[in-house]
Amino acid sequence: MDKKSFPQFAVFYLDLTCYNVPTTYIYLVKIYKEGATIFMTNNSFYLNEIWSRTLESIGTSGRVDNFVFDNFYKESNLVDLNEKKALISVASFIHKTLLMNEIDLISTTLEDILNAPTKLQCDIILEKDLTRFVDNTNEVNIIESMDESFDSSPLREDRTFENFIVGDCNRESHSAALACAYNPGNLFNPLFIYGNSGLGKSHLLCAIGNYVKKNEPSKKVYYTDSNKFVDNVVNSIKLGKIDAFKKYMYSIDVLLIDDIQFIAGKEKSHEIFFSIFNELVNNRKQICIVSDRLPTEIKGLEDRLISRFSSGLSVGIDSPEFETSLAILKLKMSNSAFESRNIDEEALSFIASNFNRDVRQLEGALNRVLFYAIEFQKDDGKIRFDTATNALRGQVLVSDKSGITVRKIIKCVSEYYGLTKQQLTSKTRTKNISTARQIAMFMCRKLLDLPYIKIGEEFGGRDHSTVMSSCEKVEKQSKASGAYLQALNEIEKIIKS
Ligand SMILES: Nc1ncnc2c1ncn2[C@@H]1O[C@H](COP(=O)(O)OP(=O)(O)OP(=O)(O)O)[C@@H](O)[C@H]1O
């Protein structure tokens, strides 16, 4: 062969008599200087032949209902085959589910037809996924490419660093997220972002993904919430593809996991995630995780995962303060269909100061005002303070009704024990002050469901583990002493009054 002129073509014949197939199997191979690819094959004649014999055998075996056979089996095709694996394509997810249930029958029949010396692993793929892997010149590598189909969650392209408003509440998490996106795998690994619902954690996760995809398109980004991850683990185990799933996950460069708290209690997923975690971190691949609480506060999470999650950087994200809320509202206005509506600063300030528990609440209040304005406003179209207060009247009352805040809890508990508020949040450890402080922390957890870390911050920057053990002590003591329990009940009543 003249080695200087590439590409060249060669024809190979494959002897299939061991499989009792009379068809000659021909490959037209395109040879380059660096290697070769199969340019064309009569693969499909051969596969059709095998598959029609397999179906005939299944159809006449009496093991499948005729209706099912006509509607599901006959609609399938054998699209690839090698000595270890067979790949069958079907039209819909329902077909796939039904045939997966009968995979043993399919594989044993196929093995019989082929007179296969070893066991065959059969996989079922949707036709629509198949087209992604096949082009008209190359029919190979379908089986290898199948592993691409492990579902991720959609990465929201509209959530970027550019449209994330930064303030004191989220500065640290924003900087850490940006640093990870800029230099994945090398700075903080894993990055763990925690905070209450609606504060922008998923937004930051998507922003990391979008940034990497834009600036380093060769890197493989995978975004998933932990429910989807658990589904993938369960399905992969069911389909005998867990090794393929792990292999696929090992190939990811940036793994973004939302709401990790939902993995709690799912033992098998813990195990799989643990090995994926170690593999990625050891290979300097970036992992970013978000949760509504610190790893140590997630009940039902294995210790080894807690320690892995805590081994990188954990950053919190808080409720937006007034200025950040105002800036977010202005951004949302400029991006909304109501961009042209004129809303005055006072109306925005009203929303920013009354609905800033989280950003979702801010967005909801703004939308309510905008729709209210369209529905009821008959003046010059400018949305003013009174339009906003009218639109949100009921909502403000509702949020005012409970009225319980950390400040109120500290005030009530300190008054109950004849202490000052400063004593309650101080470092003093005298018994009566410690007892009152523990109760106040416990009430913050019970009545406001605040994360331990947040309670710690409110009580003079205490460690979350101190808060956790204070709450446990109060619970224990309330079970041991009737008088203590009575005091607790009285305090709770005062706080709620
Ligand atoms: N700083 C911010 N700037 C602009 N938009 C923000 C900001 N923070 C949050 N948002 C917006 O608020 C909404 C809720 O944010 P997101 O879904 O990221 O919250 P989350 O903390 O992940 O909540 P959950 O835990 O419930 O999933 C989204 O529309 C997001 O774009």
In this entry the ligands are: adenosine-5'-triphosphate
Q: What amount of the residues lies in strands?
A: 5-15%
User: What's the arrangement of strands in the largest beta sheet?
Assistant: 8-9-10-7-11
CATH fold label of the largest domain: Rossmann fold
Shape: elongated
- CATH C-level class of the largest domain is Alpha Beta
Distance between the termini: 94 Å
Q: Point out poorly predicted stretches.
A: 132-148, 397-401
* Average pLDDT figure: 82
Based on secondary structure, the structural category is: alpha/beta
Query: Number of DSSP strands?
Result: 11
In CATH, what is the homologous superfamily of the largest domain? P-loop containing nucleotide triphosphate hydrolases
Largest sheet report: 5 strands, parallel
Total discrete domains: 5
